[in-house]
Amino acid sequence: MSTDATPGHAVPSTSDLPRSTPEAQGVPSGALLALVRRWEDRGLEPHGVSVLRHGHVVAQGSWRPYPQGGIQLVYSVSKTFTACAVGFAVAEGLLRTEDRVVDLFPEAAAVAGPRAAALTLHDLLAMRTGHREDTLVWRGSRTSTFPAHFLSVEPEEEPGWFVYHNGATLMAALAVQQRSGQRLLDYLRPRLLDPLGIEEAAWSSQDGLDLGYSGLHVGTEALARLGELLLRDGRWQGHRVLPEGWAERMTTRHTDTTHHPDPVDWQQGYGYQVWRCRHDAVRADGAYGQFSVVVPGSDLVVALTSCTEGSQETLDAIWEELLPALADGPLPPDPTAAAALAEHLAAVALPVPVAAAPAPGAGPWRFRHEPTEEVPFLESVELAVADGGGLELTLHERGEALVLPCGDGAWPEPLTGPWTAAGAWSAPGTFEAVVRAVEGPHALLLRCRDGAVTASWNGVPLAGPAVRWLAAPR
């Protein structure tokens, strides 16, 4: 039975997605295992995965120390949630896609040139503003005053020209928040998050305004639920959630991206805050490999959180390992392959330093850090034996101390906060450690020797290179 809800009103939700063996949904367990192993073997550092076929979860896992069900910074996947918010605002009469930006922000209209004055909400959503560079690089002000900065930057091209544009998304997010009088997160809670059963979410904000273009923290399964919603044309378990026709508008190609410098799956066109892909697929896409990939022709959703700069490789693995193996109907049970997949996903963990030498004495050990462009705020690291007998790692960043349990060659369990560490004496007098911010993609890699520490990131955080900044806002 199918039911609709008035836009802006909560609809019933079933928090648990149905689970199934892969073969019952036409997915070989061996193909899923090959996909996961390819990501691992090629160093693409998966953190969490959730695969849905025919609306059923057929594979799910988290790489320790990332907890199953934990939230993570999903970077530009935030944009897709922002587009959903715009859809609700349009349905409720707060906005129209043909609204001119200068009319949405009349207090800033005087600074707009003729091309900027012609831009519409549709242009913002489809990233077809005509700018050749992201206007956010010229921000130079608080989020609350960004509209004047945006409108003062006259587009070099006519509307229709694509550039990946955080500033455009920020403007759309500000329009929703201005017209609704609510933060994006609060606006989406009864309209999207509760109906989809997304219980935990956080959004980075400035001046009381959620950023829109980034900063959202949700779990891997939340990305799968978003993908399933788009796959079902905005319906969730028989109930309409997104306004009628909005999912189609989001996933339709509005802007040509063939001139985009990134690889082939960035050249298939852009919708409303989603990318088109090969295989007639679409995806929500965040930096360092945060994905919700929707393949309508295969009735498939693949959600992934990770830390990689090889995002095209991540997608290629889906196209080459999984898509060709899918069957139109159920497959015969394959208990051996299904068990191998389940065992692998139950055991997955990110690597840690391996002990190869004894500790040089009883400690504590202190190591100074010379600031670098990549790691500018770390001042020193201290390693000690905690009262309970385990290791304790203290990072000093700009005069503030962050004290973490540090597993000796293993991830500490249970997880006690948004940061954790594992380390070992990898050579005589040398201690190596990995410090992970488990509410985001990033890890700080430390090598301590002779009273000094060298440090580098697995991927430099876009929100600022300090470990203590990498927890979800609370």
Q: What does this protein look like?
A:
With 474 residues, the chain is α+β, with helices and mostly antiparallel strands. The chain folds into two domains: 1-350, Beta-lactamase; 365-469, no CATH class. The chain is built from twelve helices and 21 strands. The chain has helices at residues 29-41, 77-91, 101-104, 114-118, 121-125, 146-152, 166-180, 184-193, 220-231, 246-251, 311-322, 335-347; strands at 46-53, 56-62, 72-73, 202-203, 205-206, 209-210, 216-218, 235-236, 239-240, 275-276, 282-286, 290-295, 300-306, 365-368, 378-385, 391-397, 400-408, 419-427, 430-437, 443-449, 452-457. It has an eight-stranded mixed sheet, with no helix packed on it. Strand 15 (378-385) and strand 16 (391-397) form a beta hairpin. Helix 1 packs antiparallel against helix 11 (311-322), helix 1 runs parallel beside helix 12 and helix 2 (77-91) packs parallel to helix 7. The longest helix has 15 residues, at 77-91. The radius of gyration is 23 Å and the shape is globular. The two termini are 39 Å apart. The model is unreliable at 1-14 (pLDDT under 50).
Write the layout of secondary structure elements.
Layout: H1 29-41, E1 46-53, E2 56-62, E3 72-73, H2 77-91, H3 101-104, H4 114-118, H5 121-125, H6 146-152, H7 166-180, H8 184-193, E4 202-203, E5 205-206, E6 209-210, E7 216-218, H9 220-231, E8 235-236, E9 239-240, H10 246-251, E10 275-276, E11 282-286, E12 290-295, E13 300-306, H11 311-322, H12 335-347, E14 365-368, E15 378-385, E16 391-397, E17 400-408, E18 419-427, E19 430-437, E20 443-449, E21 452-457
Parallel strand pairs: 17-18
Antiparallel strand pairs: 1-2, 1-13, 3-7, 4-7, 5-6, 8-9, 10-11, 11-12, 12-13, 14-15, 15-16, 16-17, 18-19, 19-20, 20-21
Helix pairs in contact: 1-11, 1-12, 2-7, 2-8
